[in-house]
Amino acid sequence: MAIRGFASDNNSGMHPKVLEAIISANRGHRIGYGNDEITANVRQEFKKLFGAEVDVYLVFTGTAANVLGLAALTKPYNAVICAATSHLHADECGAPERFGNLKLLTLPTTDGKITVEQIKTQMRGIGDEHHIQPKAISITQATEYGTVYSVDELAAISSYAHQNDLVVHVDGARIANAAAHLGWENLRLAFQAGCVDVLSFGGTKNGIMGGEAVVFFGKQPDFKFIRKQGMQLASKMRFISAQFQALLSDNLWLENAKHSNKMATLLAEGLTEFSSVQITQKVEANAVFCVMPNDLIRRLEEEYFFYTWREIDATKKEVRLMTSFDTEESDIKQFLKLGRDSWN
Q1: What value does the mean pLDDT take over residues 128-143?
Q2: Dist. CA 193–CA 188, nearest whole Å
Q3: pTM for this entry
Q4: What's the rounded Cα separation, in Å, for the pair 122 and 106?
Q5: Which of 225, 292, 306, 341 is deepest in the core (most CB within 10 A)?
């Protein structure tokens, strides 16, 4: 069996219930392009989760969910304000610019989060045809550093945005992990204040094979055309839908996230026993960022794959360790034991 490592929650497999749902959807024939009963049921499940007013569209990838969701609410002369560390800016290979016609206005951050005061610095040239016009704020929840915007932080950004004719986009590739941290058992209550305009609801990092949902908090009848032009309309949509049907049933999406968050906390607690290891970010979701000596990193890398985030100096680096829905306590104990045996 392949080792369960700490490189990324993308590296995990499928939850068994998701696999069962795909097998079930494989029986017989169903109408294509999302006109099947499984997709219809999933739309209703999302409405139960977020409220009857939401409009939901399934796509293949998180990149598409982010770019197309933002493109639906902006024009080519608009800009999106986001963190310099955001996936939108750092890891989408220019997709927002090429396929979304979006200019990104990035803000520096040490913990993945941005603030209203920072956003205000980008509100220049409003109404001036010589300047790009800010239209959207994109935040990541949970962030690329595993931190989570609090309810108050999210409310402050949303309030400022809507007072200034901006829309709010949430890259929710790990929204389930943020919800688990914040105690958001009921997403309808969490989002009912109208604080968000469009959300990318992640599934791939939370136990499904592949698929994301673009959730609009209001009707978006034109998005079906944007999705098709964006090459994200699946002919056999039922197989994406079946995965979400399993994920949304009995709060599996939340239980998976609670578990991966718990495993990250356990991993961080174990690493604090190493005098040479320094935790660098709050562990609020399923990521642990820490500084390790190079010798320890090299030894761990002999048996585990994980990402080096940045070089601190000639002797140490910051690394990212991710847990998943299928991470077990034994995986963490084995990883820590290897570290102790190697370093001590």
Answers
A1: 96
A2: 9
A3: 0.95
A4: 9
A5: 292
